[in-house]
Amino acid sequence: MKLRKENSTNNINEIYWKENCGIAFTLSLIGGRWKINILSYLLAEKKLRYNELKSRLTGISERILVLKLKELEQDDLIKRIVHAQVPPKVEYELTELGQSFKEILILMDQWGETNLKKLF
Amino acid sequence: MKLRKENSTNNINEIYWKENCGIAFTLSLIGGRWKINILSYLLAEKKLRYNELKSRLTGISERILVLKLKELEQDDLIKRIVHAQVPPKVEYELTELGQSFKEILILMDQWGETNLKKLF
DNA sequence: TAAGGAACAAACAAAATAGTAAGTATGAAA
DNA sequence: TTTCATACTTACTATTTTGTTTGTTCCTTA
């Protein structure tokens, strides 16, 4: 899944900062275009199916959705619940760790909404 | 400075989310490998020269440092103070808007430090 | 007159992230 | 027996971000 070059400067820098700086560590888990959106939908709606997430995340491709869900699961921020059915039914929800982002997400949302308005 | 393709799906998605989601907007300003670190050093030390930032940001390249400082300045998060001297002296400090990130930075730092410890 | 410091700039290259399009598995319903 | 729905894979391509290297400017001091 990961194709990161073990010893690229980029990768070395990321590791260094993740281990030595709380903020960098935090950002490494929720950074990028989609992860916070996934988290905040799950925060608001508790439990969502794959397709429900897909339709809410306007513009996301299936590949990226699956990829981000996997990464979030590996980092123990979300939980994957598989129902043995046909057609398949898979639900996602936040773990306890995922829930602990709540405050940060709320603050980031407030900051964003406040400052977005200034631009329009 | 920007070489973004006006109508790549990637760019379209970013714009859509920036305009419609506070968190996405926030993240668009502080995301990436270095920006939050720059902000938090400036938050802690008030005012820093170019070289001082460079030496604190272990591993950063000059090109990226300059680029990120420019972006932060354009987004009005930091202020560039030029002293007319030779050799040059340029200082950076947070704007008021930059300062308003304080709470978020602190929370992200706390979250990170707490959860970093669990890994070691 | 040559070297030096601070803060960049420019050309190029590598790495990482995101997107596209087509295909797979499963069993039930038509 | 073919179609259908859901939740993905896979192979490939494009875009974006990050890093490397070398060079510039300007006055100052040796």
TrEMBL record, chains A, B:
Keywords assigned by UniProt, alphabetized: DNA-binding, Transcription, Transcription regulation
Pfam entry (one): HxlR
Gene3D superfamilies xref list: Winged helix-like DNA-binding domain superfamily/Winged helix DNA-binding domain
Keyword hit for DNA-binding: yes
Top-rank lineage group of the source organism: Bacteria
The keyword Transcription regulation belongs to this UniProt entry's keyword annotation: yes
Domain HTH hxlR-type residue range list: 21-120
PANTHER family listed in its UniProt record: TRANSCRIPTIONAL REGULATOR, TRANSCRIPTIONAL REGULATOR, MARR FAMILY
Name this polypeptide is given: HTH-type transcriptional regulator YybR
